[in-house]
Amino acid sequence: MSTKHEQIIRHIDSLPVGEKISVRQIAKALKVSEGTAYRAIKDAENKGYVSTIERVGTIRIERKKKDNIEKLTFAEIVNIIDGQVLGGKAGLHKTLTKFVIGAMKIDAIMRYTGAGNLLIVGNRTEVHEHALRAGAAVLITGGFDTSDVVKRLADELELPILSTSYDTFTVATMINRAIYDQLIKKEIILVEDILTPPSEAACMNVKETVRDWYNKKKETNHSRFPVIDSNQKVLGMVTGKDVIGQDESLSLEKVMTKNPLTVGLKTSVASVAHMMIWEGIEVLPVINEQQRFEGIISRQDVLKALQMIQRQPHVGETIDDTVSKQLSSWENTGDTSFLFEVTPQMTNQLGTISYGVFTSIVVEAASRIFRQQKKGELAVENMTIYFLKPAQMESVLSVQPKILEAGRKFGKVDVEVLNGTEIIGKALLMCKLIDK
Questions:
Q1: Which residues form the CBS domain (predicted)?
Q2: pLDDT for 69
Q3: pTM of this prediction?
Q4: Above 80 in pLDDT, residue 93?
Q5: Which domains does the chain have, with CATH numbers?
């Protein structure tokens, strides 16, 4: 049986996009306390079902899929620019296809502006009206207002007209940054994207017996099952090791491994891969915020997802991507070394290389030296940085990794970083090796 929290989430999900939601309305409709309704609405906001805007309220928005995550709703734009809604509140749930800066004459602006666009412009009332009639929303910069006629038109067409105190350049930069951050998120595959749902995932009830396990194994051809109770909470895992030699009439509660490792829906697949490697696990139960069973994720699922990530082009770059691109190899007295130029975005407030970037360089260099020697990929288990001297902006560093030990599943590598002939950093990495 589902909890009141889950019932509220399902109710919100069933509401039409664009509908306004309030704590009191939800509490009255589902006969729950206002505290329960408030917590569920906040959860729905985290999951992307609704968006809350100051002085407007909470509205149901379209939940994004991975393929359109780079598109922002007008409701999200309001929060990003710390703006206010002057009119057209009913259209806040809509997504914008692109934004246009209106620094041109009106006829030129209208050539570039169309349905689904966001026109960023100052206090030019006639432009506001033309843009709305063309199907575009309007963002007024500089904290200016617009006419009552334009506001009524925005309400009638259900197209938001927004205002912000920021200037046009700052607003465009903020929106671009938000889109870029979304693109990075798009590349990060989460457990919820690849899990096997409860309808397909084989699991067992805590009251079932060892005999039932053998029947389930025969039926599914699997041997590892999450064990759940009547409230769908994961209590344990049962495998062939647990049941072998046990009396078939024993309940699973007596033989299962209790308090198993679990993962959440929003856990990244890369984190799950590390967990499976460290613990030697083949299958992990997936749970939601209420600790209820949501499915399983297997080692095969994780490997397929990681292979898929490698084949995809990266659109939004993280700092690690930038470090990887800037690290170039060269031969130095028979040993492989790497060159790295310290660019402005790699520095701290003092203009010297940041600690985080130095760590990324060391790990990337160690990874490459193991790949070159066909040792496979590595996952860093422990890293010690002995010392780190400042490296100024535009310095060209020489990164020299040296493998000290390389077993079948374990490796140790020492990395020296030089600026000219001076050693400015030294690190020792203990790694686990992953066969591809």
A1: 195-254, 256-318
A2: 47
A3: 0.50
A4: yes
A5: 1-61 (1.10.10.10), 64-187 (3.40.1390.20), 192-308 (3.10.580.10), 319-434 (3.10.129.10)
